[in-house]
Amino acid sequence: MKYIGLHTQILKNNFKSVVLLILFPAVVFLLVWLFFYFISEQQDELRLYTTNVTFLKFIPWISAGIFLWFIIAFFFHTGMIKKATGSVPLERMENKRVYNLVENLCIGIGMPLPKINLIEDDSLNAFASGINTATFTVSLSRGIITKLNDEELEAVIAHELTHIRNRDVRLLIVSIIFVGIFAFVTEALFRVIRFGGGSGRSSSDGKKGSGGIILIALLLAAIGYLLSTIFRFALSKNREYMADAGSAEMTKNPLALASALEKVSADSRIEAVQRKDVAQLFIDNPQEKKKNMVVSSLAVIFATHPPIEKRIALLRQF
User: Fold this and answer.
1) DSSP letters for 88-144
2) Which among 7, 19, 118, 273 counts the fewest CB atoms within 10 Å?
3) Which residues contact 274 (CB under 8 A, 6 or more apart)?
4) Residue 140 and residue 150: Cα distance in Å, rounded?
């Protein structure tokens, strides 16, 4: 496994972040345009004209909505993640061992000390989060702290610190926010239909009824959710290999991380984590354990993490 270098990876992730900031809104605008096109009662060229006119009128409102959603989610993601994982600050006096390991690694690479959070769960897992120095956080479960030896725990912490250094966490937060837009719209429209918001019948004047319009909106929102989810999957897997390599480089002990991942894979299911977007932040996705019981090529394609067995094998060859 070849590590391409910290600065190269940072540049790549920053570039991907910019692409995401452009790509996700572009998908939103495209789907809104298609929505106006499909509900238009005009024909041929006149249909295109009326669609474009209507779409142009709504661009400022759509842009404002996307911007407002992004700003709120971007700056409140820390509280959202804490609530989703049940993590709380780990005090230094409560566990000096963890602080010593984190501080030694940070000093060695010239990195500011991140916040350290604790998840009260006996399973073994960890994740990094944050968008800047003030919010960067390494969260560790009670199980991973107590069941790993110093070398293994140091390797896991180094893995999470590499995510922070590589700007992986910022990239994931951006993708989570935009996927959340489509998920919210899709769920809202589905609830409208489910609880009687649309009958699917046309009105007496021949125009599409409210039910038909809602169904079109639901279909387009679902397409947007699928596309954004695929974008997210494309970003998720490679970052784990890079973080594993970064940990091996930082600690000079790839076998320690391999040993830690073996223990993590045996019991990584954090019970408090119910949200799929938050689950992908962890060193081993706690929601994919049930899926892995039935191994299939489709499950591998749509997994947020590469197979942990492959990661362990690569570390042993490092």
Assistant:
1) EEPPTTT-HHHHHHHHHHHHHHT-PPPEEEEE--SS--EEEE-SSTTT-EEEEEHHH
2) 7
3) 84
4) 14
The structural domains of the chain, with segments of one domain joined by +, span 6-316
Q: 77: Cβ–Cβ under 8 A, 6 or more apart, which residues?
A: 129, 131, 173, 176, 177
| Contact (Cβ atoms closer than 8 angstroms) between residue 34 and residue 220 | yes
Closest CA to 84 of 288, 284, 287, 273: 273
Buried b (16+ CB within 10 A) or exposed e, 212-239: bbbbbbbbbbbbbbebbbebbeebbeeb
Element holding 87 (H helix, E strand): strand 87-89
Q: Are 307 and 300 in contact (CB under 8 A)?
A: yes
Q: In this predicted structure, what is the pLDDT of residue 295?
A: 46
pLDDT tens-digit series, residues 4-22? 555 665 667 667 767 767 7
Among candidate residues 154, 160, 240, 288, the one labeled active-site is 160
Rg (CA), the chain: 23
Catalytic residue list contains 160: yes
C-beta of residue 242 within 8 angstroms of C-beta of residue 45: no
- State which amino acid sits at residue 250: M
